[in-house]
């Protein structure tokens, strides 16, 4: 019989004492094992795969002591993947305790894990969303998170050593291990209405919004039909970072943010930068606006998962390709640029394709009739890394 017991610093869950008395093998973190008496063999949990392998070979009752709810980003998944069928006696998760300490509901929080993986996707989630719980790890903790989010409208609350005598709730500099980092908007938000689904909102019911949904001037906006195709090829999603280079009104960046991705809009015109910020606010999303001319303005940007190039020459496209984003989309007005752009994709090792889009929109005429109004043709090219 294998039992997984959740520990949160309070009394153990009902049934845990009986399981511990019967166990001939105990597996857990050093601080959890230290609080348990008895003659059972003990394994300090470090290498999860090795511990799971040992549990699979054990002939007799065993108990795994785990933090919080072991079925929530915990060891239960690894045990089940190994074919084991544990009984689980959970405690409250560390995320639940952390939000309880600050008195906030968390059914609308995005929860991400940095255990055993690059912090980049967690950072992107924090860029895009205003209530994120990050399950941290050594080298991917509150200080690294704070550095990656420097200058962005985020505040970080760290709940350290939850349930222990030295539990504390601080900023990143006061963090102890283990901890949970809560990344929140700078301004406390009033709770919204009761929700039907946990985590991030399900997302918009549509995209490729009409141009009237954005402030813009002199038609400096990517048309809705072009945006529809660009979004399909960019594939923005939670955990991704998208650059919108030569952003103009920022319509592509805003639409990517509405779909859950982090977005950076690069634009050299100061007035256009203000327009991008206004459009992001209008749609209640966070878009980082970088004022500067590409390609120079790209050098310090964090790695992108997808890039949209809506302005600039082949030198801008080349600079973006050198950063090796998995997906890149370029919109070109001049047909003379199509050949050099495809050559740039090929030289960079991308699988590329393209199409010309030219839409005829229905406009009303007197008497209930309609006419077709042509939009300017745009060449949309895209590339993906193999």
Description:
The chain is α/β, with parallel strands linked by helices and 386 residues long. Helix content is 27%, strand content 25%. It has helices spanning 16-22, 30-33, 48-57, 75-81, 94-101, 120-128, 142-148, 224-234, 251-258, 270-282, 314-322, 338-347, and strands at 2-7, 25-28, 41-44, 62-67, 87-89, 110-113, 131-135, 154-160, 168-170, 179-185, 241-245, 262-267, 288-291, 306-309, 327-332, 351-357, 360-364, 370-374, 378-384. The chain is elongated. The mean pLDDT is 96. Pathway: Cofactor biosynthesis; adenosylcobalamin biosynthesis.
Task: Write a concise synopsis of the structure shown.
Keywords: Cobalamin biosynthesis, Methyltransferase, S-adenosyl-L-methionine, Transferase. With 386 residues, the chain is of the alpha/beta class. The chain folds into three domains: 2-92, 3-Layer(aba) Sandwich (Cobalt-precorrin-4 Transmethylase, domain 1), CATH 3.40.1010.10; 95-185, Tetrapyrrole methylase, C-terminal domain (Methyltransferase, Cobalt-precorrin-4 Transmethylase, Domain 2, 2-Layer Sandwich), CATH 3.30.950.10; 211-384, Rossmann fold (3-Layer(aba) Sandwich).
Question: What structural keywords apply?
Answer:
5-stranded parallel beta sheet, Cobalt-precorrin-4 Transmethylase, domain 1, 386 residues, 25% strand, 3 domains, 7-stranded mixed beta sheet, alpha/beta, 19 strands
